[in-house]
Amino acid sequence: MIGSLPMLRGLSGFSRDWLKSDIPAGLSIAAVGLPSAIAYPAIAGLPPETGIYASIVAPIAYAIFGPSRLLVVGPDAATMTVLAAAMGTIVAAYPAGTPVDRVAIAAALALGVGICCIAAKLLRLGVLASFLSRPILVGFFAGVSLSILVGQISRFTGVKIESDGLVPPLVEIAGKSGLIHWPSLVLGLAMFALLWIIRTFRPKIPGPVVVVVLSVMLSALFDFQGRGIAVVGDIPSGLPSFSLPALHQMPLDKIILGSAAIFLVSFGAGIVAARSFGSRTGEEVDANQELIGLGAANIAPGLFGSFPISVSDSRTAINLSTGGVSQAAGLVSAATLIAALVFLHSALRILPIPALAAILAMAAISLIDVHELRKIWRISRMEFIFALIAMWGAISFGVLNGVIVAVAATLVYLLRQTMFPRDGLLGRIEGRHGFFDLGRHPEARPVDRAAVFAIQGNILFYNADYVRMRLSSVIKDLPADTRCFVLDASAITQIDSTGAAALDAVAELLGKRSITFAITDLSEESRGLLTRAGVIKAIGAQNLFNGREEALRALIGDFDQPGNASAGSAV
Length: 571
Prior knowledge:
Layout: H1 19-39, H2 48-65, E1 73-74, H3 77-92, H4 102-122, H5 134-151, H6 153-157, H7 167-175, H8 182-201, H9 207-222, H10 252-281, H11 287-303, E2 310-311, H12 313-321, H13 328-343, H14 345-349, H15 353-367, H16 370-379, H17 381-396, H18 399-419, E3 422-428, E4 436-437, E5 445-446, E6 450-456, H19 464-476, E7 484-488, H20 497-512, E8 516-520, H21 524-532, H22 535-539, E9 544-545, H23 548-556
Parallel strand pairs: 6-7, 7-8, 8-9
Antiparallel strand pairs: 1-2, 3-4, 3-5, 3-6
InterPro entries: SLC26A/SulP_dom, SLC26A/SulP_fam, STAS_dom, STAS_dom_sf
Subcellular location: Membrane
Main location: membrane
């Protein structure tokens, strides 16, 4: 019955036998998720219970509407950092002295992110997941991680830090060194060192679980709160309740912009993670379908007083490593956290803040993918530069503006890749089939009385001048006996009006030299545009051909065709 409901794909074909795997997996997900659920809200200045609420309602919503069996959603450090920046902008828009409900703002942003997901699904914009390239994301998250690390200074030291950015907080804490609460700092550093040791030796029990249990025990034994070490404090023991944020009391323009920024980063990173795990399990990831699951998983926290979420790397990895086979594992995790909220709230109340800072600091370090940065450096220096630009944007301009810098860097990178399309004059190699780039193959010889030129890219407004100047330069250097210029358009999929004007100028230049301009393998769309622009009339419809050989036979008559040229074409 469950399998017949399209909204329950993650539970499709459910069998009771699966519970033998899904129950242990769900318990493990809850054990790993509880520390981060309590710690991550602090990044955005939210109470810890909001993280638990998100970890309960989001997996339930995803189990109902999500397409994947194995992905687990929940609080995410990078998403929380973008959320914190968006909330900072929204709070700053309120008049001075006006009471601000940060939880309501976070819930409104969660609803906004969910609506963005649903709208993107309806518009089939799953391709947005690929909009932020892998190098841009790696660099951006490295910058985000440094922002998170700096944000933990006050939690480690007990000193209130009022400055923002990367360097100013360091300068401020140096100037306030006399105010440092050393027991807090020692505890935080000790828990961080413990996490590092656990990360190095990789025992079966996750590090954050060890730190939470140990720090709670120490807090109970030595009365950390009485010794001046900050603790989490009271956590509501009840279940999350349904409520709608008062949107009419908020600056909606900033809510919309903040939601869009969070959506872009969380969805882009979430799909990268989903595809990474999908490649290991063989599960196909459809970005458009994931938009429905992630949309529901964000709307649910928005309706229950929490904040935006994304695909959780750590929770999904635990699910896979412990043998989870369906979304029942996520439901078991949610049920376990409900039990923890009801029965363990008194223990969580004395959890020391420096221990949470250690968990956040370790999570931030895990966002810095040094291996991937080295790989990008090895593969492409240009892409590495764009990764650094994204990192610099997140650090220098703040996380929210860093999103804009990352998007701008992506656009610049995309334009850079297409602004200078590869091209070249083609010739023949004796005894071999096909056409070959004269610049790459010294043994190739140009075709007598003809020039064959290939462009591997589109001719659009931003590169039309470059293409025109490149063609003009080649034409000026042609031998005096050249009778025809054949443009191979097989790799040109798009031409706009500016590109048409560039080709018209080329046709005029060739006409002055009495050289016939021919185009081969022109797409129907491009042919229609060039016809409307008058370019086809200028060069003559009879000079459009289906292949280079056909063009050369028609234009120079005695062209020798040794074989199937298309098999050996190379530019």
